[in-house]
Amino acid sequence: MELEVVKAELVLPTHLSFKQVQMYEKYPKGQSRGRHWKHLKQILQAENYQNFPPDEPTYVNIESPPSLHPCKKICDITGYEAPYYDPRTNLRYANADVFKLVRSLPNEYVQRYLALRNAAVVLK
């Protein structure tokens, strides 16, 4: 019996699993490396919301229930987070310096600060 000699081509995989891929191979020139984030304005333009029916929820008309977490208490004078409030005037304050200022305010200024917060109490 005579053996036949068959010519075969050796086929190698293009990527070897044990070899680490170099950055220039993974990202050719001109291709971004990171994730590209879209701004809300870009999403709105791309989605073309004018053609959607008004009762279908979208980014524009989505409604959510009120938060379950309590709202932060803000200092009436400085705008910082206020862990304290003055029981005499009901104004919230952030630190001792602001407390001195709160105690020195005339009553009409106190009422104006409370009115800004919708917590005004009319004194008779």
Automatic annotation (TrEMBL):
GO terms for biological process: chromatin remodeling. The lineage of its organism: Eukaryota, Viridiplantae, Streptophyta, Embryophyta, Tracheophyta. This is Vps72/YL1 C-terminal domain-containing protein. It comes from Lithocarpus litseifolius. Residues 73-102 form the Vps72/YL1 C-terminal domain. GO terms for cellular component: Ino80 complex. Pfam families: YL1_C. The keyword Translocase does not apply. It comes from the Eukaryota. Keywords: Nucleus, Transcription, Transcription regulation. It is found in: Nucleus. The keyword Lipoprotein does not apply.
